[in-house]
Each structure stands twice: as structure tokens, then as C-alpha cells.
Amino acid sequence: MTRVRTYLIGISISCFFAACSADGGGGNTSVPVGGSSGSTVIATGGAVSTGGSTVIATGGTSGGNSGGTGGIVTQPSGGTNGTASGGTESVIEPIEAGPDGEWMSDEGGSSDAGIGEGGDYDAGTTVGDGRPCHSSVDWTSKPDDIWISPSGRDENPGTEASPKQHLSAAIAAWTAGKTIWVMPGTYSHSSKFSLSTNATSGAPLRISGVTGGDKPVFDFSGEPRATFNNGERGFEISGSYIHMRYLEVKKAADNCLYVTGANNTLEWLVVHECQDTGIQLSNGAASNQVLNVDSYLNADASGENADGFAPKLSIGQNNYFCGTRSYQNADDGYDCWASGNQSPVKFEYCWAFGHPGPTATANGDGNGFKLGSPALSASGGNAPHELIDCFAFHNRSAGFTANGNSSGQITCTNCGVWDNGTDWSAGSGGQTPQHTGDITNLDVSVDEAMNAPRDVRGNLPDITKLVRSQKAAAGG
Ligand SMILES: [Ca+2]
Ligand SMILES: [Ca+2]
Ligand SMILES: [Ca+2]
Ligand SMILES: [Ca+2]
Which of 111, 294, 385, 460 is the most exposed place for a label (fewest CB within 10 A)? Predict the structure, then answer.
């Protein structure tokens, strides 16, 4: 790799990282949940770095998988789907100030040369300028980095010229400061891959494809197909400070990626056709960043659960999504069901469209952003989620739904809605998200949105420029 780039931009992300230092608190936290949903106890011990155990015992009616009444669909909160054990903190703490929307504040001007960046995007972007959600990391390769290739051998030293073959071998050889480079090709797996490394802020475990070429593919289609929610996942990330970038993950028999750890970054991934939600954060997952990821055509056998992205079922603090694109999944675009009342998620410039997708069953709910659950659901569904510059369109049900979240504290600022079944919804017993600065005059189609090219750092184009560009190309 000879390309050298150092990007020190993205004010909100930098601030966000600063605000997201590991808290690593130990102790025990119990979250009693009353009412018809039974009881939930989150027993937590140990700091992130030492890998305490997390057990979520769930009972009552919320543990099922059937459609609920009044338009509220219950999600599995236990059993084969929801539980996980091992390794992450889920201490409930007071809400901290999340990242602000500073990168939005410079928007404006006729050239719209990139928000707050003065037009320093690389040449080659075909449509518009990317909206900066990429991490500020120097991705220059170093001599002692570790390389893998489908045609490599695990006995090899792992240099670029003599790569190892399997990711497991690379991780076994990994030490702090190294990056694992994944060369293009297909890496086939017939069982889940667990990433439990507890790396550090100063020496994260980075696993990256080489940008500019084809994304390496992790293909989990060798896993036995799930007949309900009993399949194996692709990647399970219980560790911390793991940064996965520029990879494709597909066809796992459950989630493509499932995160319970903290301070991990998933960047510029493409995940698709898994038998549950593409990327799910649960069971204490905290301070994770999902940046510039596409998730599509995920579909579980029941058709009830597979969303594009789901920070749900007792997550921790400070999870953040930016520049993600979710489309044509079987259930919803984004789902924050029972995320926990004290665990708001921040979404910036995230798109959700075309739900439910063509592989959905009649159970598919078809919302763009599902932002809560009834208050009595396991762990609570009343978090004050924050959405800035997010877009929901061509979804059969709601573009943005509180889904029973009755906090009245969901905020959508400068969000776009068009051609949804209903643009804004409270859901049964909920309060409609607060929304200001709505954008309703766009007409981007599902095809246009899914094919909109990301720029050379993985950022989505400006959706308003996309419309202008395509109208201009069509002669209008
Ligand atoms: Ca599952
Ligand atoms: Ca559902
Ligand atoms: Ca869902
Ligand atoms: Ca449903």
C-alpha cells in the first residue's frame, strides 16, 4: 500500500471519541422491569478490559417473537436470539452529552463543497461531495503489519508478499500497533467468528481491506441455514477498540455482525443477506461507532426480526451511527427496540428506504426508523434518541416512528421524509418524535439511493445534490 492519507477532520467524530473514553465501571446493576413484560436483570461485573459477564434473563410476554397488539411488535428478548454472555460492561450511567452536530453547522453556500471541509475531497467522486462520517485514522500500512489472503498460508510470516490465509491466524499473531490487512477475495466460514480482543484506545485492533480495490468478502453461507432464530452469527464482537473497515460480510445464519463490546468501530462495511439484522448492538454494547456501512436484504425466516441496523435490547451509552444506508431488509431499517431508557442512540445522515424488502414475509414491519418500544418492554424503550439529517423514504409503514416510546424526547432535526406509509408516527401509546426543519421536497427513488456512489473515503453523497445531478443528467 503506497497511498498515504491522514485525515484530521470530522469535528463531531473527534469530539465523540473524546467523549467516549472507556468508562469500564464495574459493579452490579439491576434493571427491574415490571408489568406484563416480566423481569429483566442485567448482572454486570468487571471492567471492559477484564471481561466480566453479562447475563440477561428475560421472562414474560416480551420474550416471544410474535406480533403484538396495537401495531407494536414484540421482539425476542431471550432464548436463542437475544442472549449473550461474556465480556462487556453494561453499567447504567447518567446520560452524558453526546457528540454535537457541529459538522452540520457549516453547511451552506452554493458550492456545498463538503460540510466544514472546504472542498478537500479527493478527485474521483462521481456524484456530489461525501458527507464526512469517516474516522480520522491514518491508514498508512507499516512494515510489521499482518496481511492475509485467500491464497496465503498460515505458516507464512504474514507480510504483504507472503501473507497468512486466515483471519484467526492473523489475530493470533497480532500485537499492539499492528494493522491486519485483508487482501481481496472470499474468506469462507461455516461457523461464527468471535472477536474478543480487548485492545486499547492507543493501540486498537484494526482489520481493514485495501481501499480502492474490491472489498474482501467474508462469506458465512457455509453455516447451516436457520429455520427460525436459531442460526449462527457471522462476527460476534465482545472485545473493545476493534476497528473493522472496508470489508463485506454476507449470508450468516443470524446477524452478520453482533456487538456486545465497547468502543468498537465498524466502518465502510457492506453487510447483506444475513438471516437476522445486519448489524445488531445489544447487551451492554457501548460507545460503538457504525460509520458509512451499507446493510441490505437481510431476512430472517420469520420475517419479523431482520432489520438493517438494530441498537436494541439493553445497549449501553454513546452508540453512534453516521452515514449508514439501510434498505430492503425484511423488517425495518433501524430498530431501537428496548434499547434501555438511559441509552439514547445518535444518528447522523443515515438513510432508510425500501422496507420491507422483496425477501420479506407478511410479518415485515416496514418502518424506516423504529425508535422505541412500549415502556414496559424489557429494559425500557423510552430513550431520547437523537437524529440529525436522517432520511426515510419509500418505506411501507412509518418513516420515523416512536413505536410506543412515550418520552416525548426523540428529536429529528433536518430529517427528510417522502413516500412512506406515514412519515411520522407515535406508535401505540407513544409520542411522535419532535421534528424540525423537515425536508419533504426530494424524490430520490430506492434505486437511485441504493446506487448512489460513496466517495473515496466511504462517505455518502449529499442527497440533495444527488437529485440535482440526476435531474441534470436526464436533461431536466
Ligand atoms: Ca438473531
Ligand atoms: Ca418486527
Ligand atoms: Ca424490527
Ligand atoms: Ca411484524
Answer: 111
pLDDT tens column, 16-31: 333 322 222 222 322 2
% of the chain surpassing 70 pLDDT: 71
pTM score of the predicted model: 0.75
pLDDT score at 473 = 52
398: closest CA among 418, 413, 384? Answer: 418
**Structural domain of 373:** 1-142+178-476
Q: How many CB atoms lie within 10 A of CB 221?
A: 14
Name the closest ligand to CA 364: 4
Instruction: Report the separation in Å between the CA atom of 258 and the middle of ligand 1, taken as the mean of its atom positions.
Output: 9
Displacement of CA 317 from its chain's centroid (Å)? 14
Contact present, 416 and 441 (Cβ < 8 Å): no
Residue with C-alpha cell 447522523?
Answer: 348
d(CA 97, CA 232): 36
Q: How far is ligand 3, taken at its centre, from the CA of residue 276, in Å?
A: 10
Residue 186, H or E segment: strand 186-188
Distance 406 CA to ligand 3 centre (A): 18
Domain with residue 128: its CATH number is 2.160.20.10
Task: Tell me if 170 is assigned to some domain.
Answer: no
Q: Structural domain tally of the chain?
A: 1
Q: Say which ligand is closest to the CA of 307.
A: 3
Residue 421 lies in a domain: yes
What spacing in Å lies between the alpha carbon of 197 and ligand 2's midpoint? 32
Between the CA of 325 and the centroid of ligand 2 the distance, in Å, is: 19
**Mean of all residue pLDDT scores within the chain:** 77
Among the bound ligands, name the one nearest to the CA of residue 80: 1
Q: Which ligand is nearest to the CA of 335?
A: 3
Count Cβ atoms within 10 A of the Cβ of residue 158 and give its class: 0-12 exposed, 13-18 middle, 19 or more buried. buried
pLDDT value of residue 124: 36
Q: From residue 116, give the alpha-carbon distance in Å to each of 108, 120, 132.
A: 9, 10, 9
Write out the three cell numbers for 242: 476493534
- Ligand 1 center–CA 205 separation, angstroms: 26
What would the grid cell of residue 449 be?
Answer: 439511493
- Active-site annotation, residues: 370
The pairing of beta strand 54-58 with beta strand 40-44: antiparallel
Higher pLDDT, 386 or 66: 386
Q: What is the mean pLDDT of residues 383-404?
A: 98
